[in-house]
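User
New here, explain this?
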Amino acid sequence: MKLFFEVLIFVIIGVALFWVGMILFSKLGIRTRRGSSKKKDGRQSGDDDSDVDPNKTCPVCSKRLSKGELVSSAAFPASNGSNDRFMHIRGCVYCLNGERKRVCPVCGTVLEPNEILVARFFERIGRRSHIHVIGCTRCKNLGSNKQA
């Protein structure tokens, strides 16, 4: 009977340590996807776009970008000392070259090559930064398209 209680105590301690470890790893953002045959969006892992970063898309043309491909943008310094800043987004290489239509995600109009998206850029310490698109130069009445 004493052996049964010792084994039970070890099992309880093991489960508690496993639970604490899982909480710590989820809080730190350390996750592994080994052995997973399905990706987050439901596609199989053997698809042809293995170099595509699933978390990175162009906000102008909605093209999923490969690793190393960047979006042309300019972030301005924060005026009030906070963690959020204004940002101008021009687009990725696909929409800037004219391969894809440049569309404003707010109003849905097709953008001309000189038009930009206006966004807020939120820097987060310990996590990925976040961008919130406010609109284009047309729907926000900015730049040369201002109405009188």
Notes: Residues 31-48 have pLDDT under 50 and may be disordered. Residues 73 and 89 are 4 Å apart (CA to CA). Strands lie at 52-57, 64-66, 72-75, 84-91, 117-122, 130-136. The chain has two domains: 1-28, 54-145.
